[in-house]
Every structure is written in C-alpha cells, then in structure tokens.
Specification:
Elements lengths: L4 H29 L1 H8 L2 E4 L37 H10 L11 E5 L3 H10 L9 E7 L15 H6 L19 E10 L19 E9 L6 E2 L2 E2 L2 H19 L5 E4 L11 H12 L10 E2 L2 E2 L4 E5 L3 H11 L5 E2 L13 E2 L5
Parallel strand pairs: 2-11, 2-12, 3-5, 3-8, 8-11
Antiparallel strand pairs: 1-4, 2-13, 4-5, 6-7, 9-10
Helix pairs in contact: 1-2, 6-7, 7-8
Length: 349
C-alpha cells in the first residue's frame, strides 16, 4: 500500500534535516580533529578521461614511489609532514603503486547489501599489517554535489554523503562532472552506521570508523532504450568508457579492494542487463596465455571486487546478465556456508 503523500513528505523532510545537521555540524567538527580526514578532503582531484594504467617495476626513490603516479591520473596527496612517523609508513604502504610482481587472479562477488557495509567487510576482514586501501564508486549526480542529500533523497550517493566526510570534498567548481572520469577523494572517513534507515544511522564508535577512497562519477541519464537495450550503440560504448575510467582511477592509486554497483540502474533508467554486460566487458574478458582477469587488454589482477546491490531483484538480474556463474550473497534464502564463494576469471579461452 503506497505511503500517503503527506507522510512521505514528512519523512523526506526529516531525512533532509538529519543530513544537514550531519554535514554542517558533525563533519566540520570531525575534520577539525582528524588531520587525515581533513587532508583527504583537501586532496580531492578532478580526473578527466584517465589514460590506460600501466604497471611499472619498483623504483628507488627517497620518498616512496609516488612519482610513478604523476600523470593525467593526478598526483597523490603530499604527506611530508608525517615523515618518519608510523602513520606515514602505513600511508606509504597503502598509497604505493602496484609493481610488476605476480598477482593472483581478480575475484568478483555480488552482495545484496549497502555500499558501506560491503566496504566495512573488506576493511575489517583484512589480515595485512597496514590497513587495507578500500575504494568505493559513488554513483553520482553529474550536476549537484551530493545529489539530493540536502533535500532528503535516498539513493546511494545521498547515503554516502550522509554518513561520511565525502560531501565536504564535492566542491561546486568541479561541476558539471566530466562525461568520462570524475572526482577522486582519498581518505574519506566513515562516521555513521549504514543500518537504521537512510541517513538515520547512529554515529560509529571510534574503533568502528574506517577510511575509504571514493571515486565520484556519473552515469548516463535516461538514455533511449528499446527492448531492454540501448537504442543508440554509442551509448553502450560511452558506458564502457565511463567504467574503464573508474577502474583506471582506482588502479592507478594502488587500490586492491573495490566496491562497485549497478551503476545508473533505477532512477537514471539504464537497463540492468546493459550495465552488467558492460562491467563484464571491462573487467573480465577471458583469454591470454598468462591467465587472470583483463578488461579488453587491461589487466586487473589482484583486485578484489564486490558489487554491492541492495535491491535483491536487481542483484539477481545483474548476476544473471554478468555471467560467469556469479552468485548473489546476502539474500535470505542463501546458504550461509556459501557467503564467501567468489567467481574468479581464470583466463581460460
């Protein structure tokens, strides 16, 4: 039964009020006290049509290997003031570019859950000495920073901006977002729980907070569709270019754990099948004698990818169209013992 318009409006107004309080009061206070979160906001970069990422052998440099990342992808933030501290050692390890060492095949999973829930699992399940570098795709509005977060909207971007320090980095000067590329914000601090409804989550305890990187990029809006497919083949190619840009943005910054989604499905009107097949095309073209996952000649070996898709029906349709035998985890009927099953591209022809 539909919610009466008056009640729906009241709920939206309440969400807007909660988001404004969080963004205008809580986040500034946190940025004042957390140097790392503040540097992340200040280090946001506009990335336009990044070039293909090329893995390079390690180089000896006095202050790490960040120079390898100076390109159209943009430089990493300068943390010189932390030189010699344990915090910087961990930062250097997290931000170091990938080398030519042998990496395991990329793994891909689909979970019926929230983006931040998936990111939290990836972050806290890591057994490495340094905290893992987890990145998420912010499936963003191309026109408005944060989409409708300040008016009570409830899509994925609004959820991110209503729970993290991300919104502070989305400056008006960056908009409209580029057709290919977007904004890259490192060290976004997750402050609120993803439970208890849109923007209504409680503040996390300090021990439960964690940092993520965020790629803020926009998908096509209301493309012409015929029979569940793009009417214009050029739209399909543009979608692939958008996805490839996301992968280059995160890969070029040393990210090894990535949360993606059914980008542009729902309100933006992109068919689930087209989006799923485009992701499969970018991520998992099979072939090559060396094995592993590669997207149309670009390899993503070693990367752990989770598609976080909250709507169960969308998640199931996405898995079916993506192919490769992917299973949707987190649905009530799933066997709990199968929760961590992953699909790996083994490189077989």
């Amino acid at each position: 039964m539909p919610i009466p318009r008056r009640i729906a409006r009241a709920k939206r107004d309440a969400r807007a009020k909660t988001a404004k309080t969080f963004i205008n009061k809580t986040v500034p206070a946190v940025l004042k006290s957390s140097a790392r979160a503040r540097r992340g906001v200040e280090s946001v970069q506009l990335v336009i049509d990044p070039p293909r990422f090329k893995e390079e052998p390690p180089k000896k440099q006095a202050h790490g290997t960040r120079k390898a990342l100076h390109s159209a992808q943009g430089p990493l933030p300068d943390h010189a003031e932390l030189q010699g501290s344990l915090e910087e050692e961990e930062e250097e390890e997290r931000h170091a570019p990938l080398t030519s060492k042998v990496l395991p095949p990329m793994s891909i999973r689909i979970h019926a859950c929230d983006t931040l829930e998936a990111a939290s699992r990836m972050y806290f399940s890591s057994t490495s000495r340094a905290p893992p570098r987890v990145a998420v795709l912010n499936m963003a509005s191309p026109l408005r920073p944060g989409g409708g977060v300040l008016t009570g909207a409830t899509s994925q971007e609004e959820s991110l901006c209503g729970r993290t320090t991300l919104y502070a980095s989305l400056r008006e000067e960056f908009y409209r977002l580029p057709d290919v590329g977007g904004l890259y914000t490192p060290d976004v601090l997750v402050l609120k729980s993803w439970h208890d409804g849109p923007m209504g989550g409680l503040l996390l305890a300090k021990s439960e907070r964690f940092f993520i990187d965020v790629a803020t990029c926009a998908m096509l809006r209301m493309p012409d569709v015929e029979g569940g497919k793009y009417a214009d083949p050029r739209d399909e190619e543009l979608v692939v270019r958008k996805m490839r840009a996301v992968m280059r943005m995160v890969r070029g910054r040393g990210v090894m754990k990535l949360v993606l989604g059914a980008w542009g499905c729902g309100a933006y009107g992109n068919p689930v099948g087209e989006i799923a097949r485009a992701w499969a095309r970018v991520l998992c073209v099979r072939g090559g004698r060396n094995g592993g996952c590669r997207g149309e000649g670009e390899r993503w070996d070693g990367l752990e990818v989770v598609f976080a898709i909250k709507d169960c029906r969308t998640a199931l349709a996405f898995a079916r169209e993506f192919g490769g035998g992917l299973t949707v985890h987190g649905i009530a009927d799933d066997d709990e013992d199968e929760e961590e099953i992953s699909s790996e591209c083994d490189g077989e022809a």
